[in-house]
Amino acid sequence: MVDVANEVQKQVREKRPFTVMTVLKNRWFLYAVSVAAFFLIWDRVAIARVFSSGLPRPYEVVLQLWSMMFDPLAGKSLLGHVWASTQRILIGFAIASLVAVPLGLMMALNRYVNAIVKPLFDLLKPMPPIAWISIAILWFGIGETSKVFIIVIGTFVPCLLNAYNGVRLVEPELYDVIRMLGGNRRNEIIDVCFPAAFPAIFAGLQISLSIAWTCVLAAELVSARSGLGFIIILGMNLSRPAMIVGGMVIIALVAWGMTLLVTGLEKLVCPWKREIEGL
Amino acid sequence: MAYEYVQVKTPLVLRLLPVLSIVLFFGAWQLVVDWGIVPSTMLASPIQVFQLFLVKWTEVNPDGGLLSQHIWTSVQEAFIGYLLSLLVGIPLGLAMGWFVVVEGLARPFFEMIRPIPPIAWIPLTIFWFGIGLEGKVFIIFLGGIVPCVINSYVGVRMTNPTLIQMARTYGATDWQIFRQICIPSALPMVFGALQIALALCWTCLVGAELLAADSGLGFLITMGRRLALPDMVLLGMIMVGLTGAVIGVIIDYFEKKLLAGIRR
């Protein structure tokens, strides 16, 4: 059998000679072309002044970032601003997940808690967190508290919803198994419910993180004296597009790094999660 | 052994608690303002908000627009942006799922744009388009396109490989397989994107209007803050939530109709 398989493989390989077309259809080659084309078109568009002076050339952005690394902007270097935003996210995210996840679990496990909290939650859910910015500023001023408040509001919803749905969608067969093995309600909750709901809870935390990122930017755009949102709004006020685009590049890099970190963490803490193929 | 029909009754307490919790919420809100625990410059009572809601249909001041005008502006922007993101995002995602060349060319571009929250584009769009309709539509478009592309792509990728192999055996061309097998099998996923994209579009809209607008619900909120009128801020927030929920219900209705046609 092995010989036959090898024979087939050999034939298949021989049928695919190394030609121009195979190179053109190679995925990595296309990726490289795409990235190169992206920067080339960006450069051309910037030189042609399609958006008048609204689009800097890529190398201007790099220069701008380089200078921001060392020259402090509003009292902070670039890394200081990154840290300012990250700090807000971490505080808001920690508060929201510490309150929302237990609340969601309780709602799913206890009908009375559910009956009290669910209607309120459904009432407040459709309001986008960004709509809360104005009232947060009225309540807490433009300091750190209002930004953390926005992040808490934004991250609360997915944390709670995922914890709630995670528990409710646990397969009933698993409960049957632990009951048959002689487990009581306590065993049901601790040994079945939590591990089975954990991937969903973690997915909720992941969604929360990206929402927190959007919220902190929006809050900083409206009013702030530090952070990445502040950099891009400052670039707008000073009419320096290189600063805006530089800020956006940093935002993309930080968000990308965070996603990588969380995905890595997920593999570490819940390896029993079923892989879903995706983008 | 015959099964007995057991009627599960919800206890009266469980049916009353939701009502009670809503009533308590609004009652506490009203009393907190009435008793002056929270200053009236920071929070308006539900009754005040409702009064303003009734007045705003006919009163233009102080923000220079009727409530219906603000709602219309917002809905219009959201609708155009949403439609554009569907029209571009879904075909792009479907093509990325099937054609290697499209995927190879579009994916790095997409992955570079994706991590930037649409809100972060606002300053740049103000530079490019000013504070008119185009800028906001662009931001809403950016917000809506991401889930459209992802869901369509995953939908095509999840096509049952047996069906594709069968079609190959019968001598179908790549294009035929794509049109007659991959697209129909991806459709449920694609329709799933409609709701996600809508929610994102609506959030982006509010963000865009907070910063760059001269009418719209987000603008109403901002004006309320600038003039220190908490009732106007709250009215804006409630209208945003309400309008978003109504649009969500409409899209949900269409989604069900479309899906009913697929699952024969």
Short description:
The complex is a heterodimer of chains A (279) and B (264). Chain A is 78% helix and 0% strand. Chain A has 279 residues and is mainly α.
Describe the structure.
The complex is a heterodimer of chains A (279) and B (264). Chain A is 78% helix and 0% strand. Chain A is an all-alpha fold. Chain A is flat and about 70 Å long. Chain B is mostly helical and 264 residues long. Chain B has one domain: MetI-like fold. Helix content of chain B is 77%, strand content 0%. The longest helix of chain B has 38 residues, at 174-211. The two termini of chain B are 37 Å apart. Chains A and B meet through α3, α6, α7, α10 and α11 of A and α1, α4, α5, α6 and α8 of B.
The count of domains of chain A is: 2
**Helix-strand string of chain B:** HHHHHHHHHH
Q: Can you tell me the CATH class of chain B? A: Mainly Alpha
Number of strands of chain B: 0
The percentage of residues in β strands of chain A lies in: under 5%
CATH superfamily of the largest domain in chain A: MetI-like
* SSE ordering of chain A: HHHHHHHHHHHH
| Helix-and-strand structural type of chain A | mainly alpha
Strand proportion of chain B: under 5%
Q: Which key terms come to mind for this protein?
A:
heterodimer; A: 279 residues; mainly alpha; MetI-like fold; 2 domains; flat; B: 264 residues; 0% strand
Helix and strand layout, with pairings?
The complex is a heterodimer of chains A (279) and B (264).
Chain A: H1 2-14, H2 20-24, H3 27-48, H4 58-70, H5 78-109, H6 111-124, H7 133-140, H8 144-168, H9 172-180, H10 185-222, H11 228-237, H12 241-269
Chain B: H1 12-34, H2 46-55, H3 67-98, H4 100-113, H5 122-129, H6 133-157, H7 161-169, H8 174-211, H9 217-226, H10 230-262
Helix pairs in contact in B: 2-10, 3-4, 3-6, 3-8, 3-9, 5-6, 6-8, 7-8, 8-9, 8-10, 9-10
